[in-house]
Structures are given as structure tokens and as C-alpha cells.
Amino acid sequence: MAAAAQHRVRRGHFAAAALVAAVLGAAAPAGHAALFEDDEARRAILELRQRVDSLQQSAARSADDAAQMRRSLLDLQTQIETLRSDQASLRGQSEQLTRDAADLQRRQKEMAQGVDERLRQFEPAKVTVDGREFQADPAEKRDFEAALAVFRSGKFADAAPLFTSFVRQYPSSGYVPSARFWLGNALYATRDYKGAIDNFKGLLAAAPDHARAPEAALSIANCQVELKDTRAARKTLEDLIRVYPQSEAATAAKERLARLK
Q1: Repeat TPR: residue ranges (predicted)?
Q2: Is residue 96 located within the same domain as residue 166?
């Protein structure tokens, strides 16, 4: 566009110069003075000068317009580059936000799983002990198994208070009949026969159909024998054979009853 403006300026200058030359050429010969008066010649020259000035001003304005357009184009190009840079920055920020959101979701999922796992540690769970299935808190299971482990290690004197504490702390627990059975055996091992009898009788009274009930009745008879109460031992053995006739404890009771006679 600037080249076109310059071309128009040059073309205007050429036209003006040609017009001036034509007028001057026509007015030069002295013999033709009659054709133009001096005033008319001056007016013609002034008009030509005005036209030349007008063309020059127009050309200058065209050059200014071209320069302004170039500046506008440069400004527009700068704005476009800025927009492209901003767009790239926003794209990068969007991608980072997407990664951050995914990472946050992953951490929240891991935290939720961790919370669920910790909560499950305090929730009742189904357990089976001595053929019985019931719900037990993790604390119950832990304390019962800890006491039983001490008993099985042969530390009967240490196991007895653990089972006693368990029965007092969890009186409604499904572990209680089994805890009483093992407590009775721990007391028997430490020769606390009366205490053992009380625990075995507690098992029979609370859970007569428990898998350990026949063994508990046989253990009562053994304690009574140790206490030299033969009559009570005989009755206990007879009741055992009558109530639990199909149990292994009943078979053992028959043999012991025969020896007591």
C-alpha cells in the first residue's frame, strides 16, 4: 500500500510538472502575448501551484496513512502473538489443573480406603469358636486369643487371671462359654478345684448345648475326685452319661464310674 501511495505521488508530480511546462511553453513566445494577459498567466500559475501543493499534501497524507497502517498491522501482529502466548499458557494451566484434579481424586480414594480399613478394625466380625458362629468385636477376639495363647504355652497361673478378666469385661460375648472352659482348666492345673468347678458349672448353666459342655461335666467330676468327694463325682458322671450319651466324654465317664465302684 505504501508503494502505491508513492506511485500516486510521483504520478501527481509528473502531471503537475507537465501542466506547468505546457502553460509556460504556451506563454513564452512574445508574439502570442495577446492570447494570455499577464494576470491570467499569474492566475494559471497560482492554480497550478495550488494543484501541485494539493497533490503533494494528498501524497503526504497517503504516506502517513500507509505508515499508520503499517503500525496498526505491527500492533495487530503483536496482539496475535500475545494471544497465542496467553493461549499456550492457559492450555498449560488447564493441563496442570487436570493432573492436579486426578492426583487429588487418587489421594481422596486412598484416604477413603484407609479410613474404611481402620473402621473395619473396630467393626464386629463373624468368628467361629468351638463350633459356634457369632459376631465379635476385634478387641474381644484379640483378648481371648491372647489369654488362650498364654494357656497353651503352659503358663496356667498367668492364663487364669486373663480369662477371669475377659469374662468380666465381656459378659455377653460369644467367647464366654469357651473362656469359662479354659479358665476352669487353668484353675484345675493350679489345683484350685473349687474355682474350677464353679467355672465349669457356669458354662453348663449358660450353654448346656455347647461343644465343650460334656468335657466341662467330666472335668467337674475330676475336680470332685481330687477333693475326695466320691459321691458327688459319681453323680456327676452319671448325669454326664445320661445328658450327653453320644459324646466321647460319656465314654470316658463310664470307665471312670466303673473305677469308682
Answers
A1: 177-210
A2: no
The pair phi, psi for residue 113, each rounded to 5°, is -65, -40
Over residues 192-209, mean pLDDT = 97
Average pLDDT, the chain: 83
Burial label for 226, CB within 10 Å (0-12, 13-18, 19+), is middle
Last residue of a domain, one of 101, 121, 141: 121
**Alpha-carbon gap, residue 196 to 183, rounded angstroms:** 7
Q: Which domain holds residue 185?
A: 126-259
Residue where a domain terminates, one of 95, 121, 147: 121
Residue 36 pLDDT class (50, 70, 90 cuts)? low
Residue 144 exposed, middle or buried by CB count within 10 Å (0-12, 13-18, 19+): buried
CB-based contact 250:240 (threshold 8 Å): yes
